[in-house]
Amino acid sequence: MVANDYIVKGEMAPVFDFLKKKAEINTTQTVDEIESSVYEHIKPYGFKKYGRTLHRFVSEDISQVINFQSGMPARGMGGLLCVNLGIRIPECSERTFQPQPEKKKYYHEYECTIRSRLGIVSGRNETWYDLRKKTAKIIDSIIHEIDQYVLPAYEVLNSRDAILAQRRNYPLLDNLNSLLILLDESMIYGHLGDMEKAKELFELYYQSVVKEYNDLTENGHKQYLKKGERVIFMGQDITAEKDGYVTLYGADHGHIDYLDKLAVGLGLREPV
Questions:
Q1: Alpha-carbon span 15 to 21, nearest angstrom
Q2: 246: number of Cβ within 10 Å
Q3: Average pLDDT of 239-260?
Q4: CA–CA distance, 129 with 142 (Å, rounded to integer)
Q5: Is a pLDDT exceeding 80 seen at residue 106?
Q6: Structural domain of 252
Q7: Same domain for 128 and 201?
Q8: Closest CA to 145 of 221, 84, 236
Q9: Are residues 95 and 163 in the same domain?
Q10: Where in the chain does DSSP place strands (E)?
Q11: What is the DSSP letter of 41?
Q12: Shared-domain flag, residues 42 and 164
């Protein structure tokens, strides 16, 4: 497989301009064909098909998801396809130690706790497949990456105990929500009834959030501006006099406020 034959990555805009000039295709029909082929390949592993989502439950209520997302023409991404990946742990998604007992038939990738995309999971940039290329090659590429990287990870991360023990070993499968690991682990331990461990991990996560907030408030963060560009942030109004970085001070206290309320709701702290 030569990735550049049908994968869009890196500098996107020139490629999108090129795609616009090419003949239109039936995107829905092409994605249907790709998804159906992938589904037939992984169906023996217990996956079921719901729209653009391939889904299976493991350990009764943990979801493992493979989702097909078409690019939006309005953003210049018509005729492109990416494949989203996700694992959903109910108590982590719902932020309660006792999640809803009634399961839905399936869950969407954006509802998942652990999330990534094809391309990233194999150590490259996220992959956007050009649907104007040969469909058979796209199918082969997707199935190859799922077989090599996704299914092996899903087979390991198939229970709460396994996720607690092994999640950090799969950072490429966890590129969107990895900063929430301590909070997620707190939720899992709480669900399993280990309130002491749940409280310990929650407070560790809380301390890291407060530390980041204080650092951004005191030291700020850098943002690059071109000459003449303007940025308004937390009461600061800066127009760049030349190309370069400016320092913006401040941070949103909202997440800390949310965690304070969550801790009380979970029974990890007494009401103030």
A1: 10
A2: 18
A3: 94
A4: 9
A5: yes
A6: 195-265
A7: no
A8: 84
A9: yes
A10: 7-8, 48-50, 53-58, 62-70, 80-88, 114-117, 128-130, 221-225, 230-233, 236-239, 244-248
A11: H
A12: yes
Determine the average pLDDT of the residues in 14-30: 63
Mean of pLDDT values over 28-46: 97
First to last CA, the chain: 60
Answer for the pair 55, 112: CB distance below 8 angstroms, yes or no: no
Q: Is 92 helix (H, G, I), strand (E, B) or coil?
A: helix
Rounded to whole angstroms, the Cα distance separating 194 from 201 reads 11
Residue 76 pLDDT > 80: yes
141 is a domain residue: yes
What is the distance of C-alpha 193 from the center of its chain?
A: 27
- The pTM of this model reads 0.87
- Residues in Cβ contact with 87 at an 8 Å cutoff, skipping those fewer than 6 apart: 62, 63, 64, 65, 112, 113, 114, 115, 154, 157, 163, 173
Average pLDDT of the segment spanning 237-265: 95
Q: What are the pLDDT digits (tens) for 77-96?
A: 889 999 999 999 999 999 99
C-alpha distances in Å from residue 212, one per residue of 127, 205, 246, 256: 32, 11, 19, 11
For tokens 């009380």, the residue is 264
The pLDDT tens digits for 23-34 are 567 899 999 999
